[in-house]
Amino acid sequence: MRIFKVNWYPPQSEELTRLFGETVTFDIDPIPTDPSYRIAPERSRAADAVINCSATHLLPADIADFENCRIVVREGVGYDNLDLAGWGARGVPVCNVPDYGTTEVADHAIALMLSLTRGTATYGDVLRRDPVANWRFAAAPLIRRHKGATFGVVGLGRIGLAAARRAAAFDMRVVFYDPYLPNGTELSVGYERVHSLVELMATSDIVSVHAPLNEETRGLLGRAAFAAAKPGLILVNTARGPIVDLDALHEALVDGRVAGAGLDVLPKEPADADHPLVKAWTSRESWLDGRLILTPHAAFYSPDAMKDMQRKAVEVILAYVNEGRLTNCVNREFLKGGKTTGRPS
Predict the structure, then answer these.
(1) Does the record bear Oxidoreductase in its keywords (predicted)?
(2) Which residues make beta-bridge pairs with 8?
(3) Per annotation, catalytic residue among 70, 210, 240, 291
(4) pTM attached to this predicted model
(5) SS3 of 196-239
(6) Whether pLDDT at 339 is above 70
(7) Which tens digits make up the pLDDT trace of 327-336?
(8) Is 297 a catalytic residue?
(9) Which of 70, 210, 250, 297 is catalytic?
(10) Which among 5, 77, 180, 279 would be 20 to 30 A from 310, CA to CA?
């Protein structure tokens, strides 16, 4: 079997060859540096399966070129950069790997919160500038008590629930907004449910975003949401950058409606250095001191998570091709009534 790994970025796990080398041949294609780059059709035709390694880059090829492809896997959780309907029309399932970095992302969300609310990043930064004059506990502006504060979750899926559990361990009150979960979910998890984003924003001291990116969630955290924010709100986003309207967040930080933000993801990645908010942060404008933390879409990362992600992506393919067992399929609705040439007999 030939698996085409597209938009690959290092490190490549040597375990893949050790685990699957006898049954799988890998064709590795790195993220292209030339925007006009297209995969050679003969490489696409040779693929029995495709793995898109990138969370943001599209496949640099036409779907029709993958004549023999039987399954596509997004090597990660988000799959908004894959054409679900297009692959479904060809009878090809698209799957993801939703369970490789759940704990890492949840930990990162809490770490961003703590960096702001306990001042760990700010204290270190100001002490580096002057360890004598800046030896003062009031240097971090967003310090607060966690016990009794409200932690709001947008999207109570695997990662959202893991983040909620961690917040609850700090004796925080947990509320969540997720219109896709069935009635009674709040009873099973023991957290409070609200039925609108406005209510969540007005109730929460911290809002942590864990929703997928789609047409409903793009720009979800925008001007209307920030206008409803509880005074002193801190926003954390470890999901997808475009869920938060960066212009609206900038305005809300400037006028104080939002006290601070920890962002692991941005609408444009790498960061748009010319965006007013990013520019204010990199320029160390004093009004933003201790109020914003950016990390480079790294919440998912640990060496163990990378190994799991790469291994699990291959296991999803082999389970389908060898056993007919389809796991983590995200385009099932588009497979109904479509061609089935890509499915195993």
Answers:
(1) yes
(2) 30
(3) 240
(4) 0.89
(5) CHHHHHHHCCEEEECCCCCCCCCCCECHHHHHCCCCCEEEEECC
(6) no
(7) 999 999 999 6
(8) yes
(9) 297
(10) 180
